[in-house]
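User: I'm putting together a small comparison set for a docking exercise, and I want a reference complex before I start. The sequence is below, and the ligand is copper (II) ion. Could you produce the 3D structure with the ligand included, as structure tokens?
Assistant: Of course. I'll restate your input first, then give the structure tokens for the complex.
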Amino acid sequence: MGMRKRASGAVLAFATAMIAGGALAQPIVGQPVDGAIGFQTAYAPLKHDVIFFHDMILLPIITAITLFVAGLLLWCVFRYNKKSNPTPARWSHNTMVEVIWTAMPVLILMFISIFSFKLLFAYHDMPKADMTVKVTGYQWYWGYAYPDQKIDEITSSVMPEAEAKAKGLPFRLAAHDPMVVPVNKVVRVLVTGADVIHAFAMPAFGNKIDAIPGRINQTWFKAEKIGTYYGQCSELCGIDHAFMPIQINVVSQADFDAWAASKAPKPAVATPAALSAPGPAPTGAVPATPAPGADVNPAAPPKPAPPVGPKAAATKTSAPTRIAAPSVKLAALN
Ligand SMILES: [Cu+2]
């Protein structure tokens, strides 16, 4: 009776969740859900591929092997115990059986590898990107820069507990200044770390990639629905590792354009390079072309190390400090 009541309660909760999910035009994805099982719902192509690979390829094979081995065990236990089989056979080898139990696992692994490599290539072979976001992991927050929109790095930090509670948002998932991207656009994500190794993970899009100082890793997603998506740093990076959530707001192209316009161009900052620039500096504008040596275009592959010295250091100062920091490390590593 209790079980039945609980089961019907679960069905009701599921139905309510489905209705609520349908009614909500904008999903909020990435929060813990009571009684959930399996992966988070997919909202990007790679995640669909991941779920297909797991649910349609791996899970049936694992289930079949488990049932087969369990059946063999039970058969041996009941058919060949001392009572049912008092005089055991004396032979020990069977060539056919040995060939089968060697060949079968090889064939199974080859079958899995077909789909596994297909998935791997899907991650690697990014479609033509519509835009780029450069993600930098810091102890303990994230930086999002938009080179195409000329938006300097935006610092995104965890929303304090009191504020999150007041707004009804999940603490440790909600963030200030989240990443904002347009819906149905291929977003190339360039990921690096400024201090230690972090990892950029967005389960609803199937993304998880290390943010490594001195390296730029690349991944991509194409968000399929307008909404709010939560992820977290997924590489133990220090004492506040649990307090650097990743929030991505997927919005319409019009909303994204408005947001981008509000973030760029930034007002001019008085830097030594800007002050010494020939001619009157245009008011309220950052020079359109990056200063030489200022590695603000993360799309470019790591270049041979520029000369490191007082001169190089002087040109670096014209770049925003946060972006310059990893570049300096890149140069030092090269
Ligand atoms: Cu971390």
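Residues 45-82+94-124 form one domain. Confidence is low (pLDDT under 50) at residues 1-24, 274-334.
User: Thanks, that's exactly what I needed.
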